[in-house]
Amino acid sequence: MTLCTTCGTPSLTQFASPDLVAKIVYEGHDRADDPAWRESGAATLEDYARWCAHLCGIACFRMALGPDAPSLFELRDGALKYGAYTEDTEGVIHGLIYAPFAEYARDVHGVEATVHRHLALDEILQLLDEGRTVMTSVHFEIRRPERPAPGRGGHLVLLTGRTPDGLLHLHNPSGIDARSRTAELSPEAFEPFFAGRGVSMVTRMGVSATR
């Protein structure tokens, strides 16, 4: 486990092998061909391969909980019991669903979690300044912010603070390299990817907002 030198938050991915993320998300690499899958806490390779692409939010939560957090799939199992993920009749996975997730975070992990169904960028800055981490809905291509944003939402990243010069410090569970897994973006660069919703949290880890 690698701790971020800027904020002390673990840098984790939703896939068990960080060096395979780029191949998985851009080259169609088979998620079942991940030699480290057992480290996720999944009971079987099939379960890992089916779920890992859906666990960006749980990976964010795991980072927010700190180095002693349960495994990715132990957190997934807990979230499932609260209805934070659902499966339709065709077996399609839906989630992370914010309200039951926040209930799970509060009840099981003692995390003060608040759902923000409508969240403006300046409100994110205020939440960070209050010492909260903020899990935000963004387009997954935020991992390559130098390119035009193709859309908003569909993926979750964890904002842990902002730098003295106002850059947002974020952890991306599907980052393809070290630079995109822990990144610093200006609010202006972040905004085109941002869907205007998220969940803010206060954890026992006590991450402060401004670096």
Automatic annotation (TrEMBL):
Top-level taxon: Bacteria
Full protein name: Peptidase
Organism: Streptomyces lasiicapitis
